[in-house]
Fold:
Amino acid sequence: QVQLVESGGGLVQPGGSLRLSCLVSGPTSRNYDMAWFRQAPGKEREFVAAIRRSSGSPNYAQSVRGRFTISRDNARNTAYLQMNSLNPEDTAVYYCAATESRLILSSTWQANQYNYWGQGTQVTVSS
Structure:
């Protein structure tokens, strides 16, 4: 059984940084394409970033491009989301997602492509 556990969320001031981690238990993370999504209060879940098992070109939402970086360490079964220049609009619960399917880059933003999800970690950006 595959389980995803996120960590690293918290309260940060505008302009600050956080790094989220997603530990994959069960079969090794190298078998999965992975992504981060987020959901703010009163809003629908939205795509943030994705990285495929080959660690090729990542995909980013326009709202985070240039500020967030997704990466993975297959030896540690962990995916990361480095978030810089945070602003209050980044406040949300951040979810890690994974799929055994080999996604094409243009489909990595779609939540219904992922069949494993973590429980989420809260990120709050406030002064």
The longest strand covers residues 18-25. The radius of gyration is 13 Å. The mean pLDDT is 93.
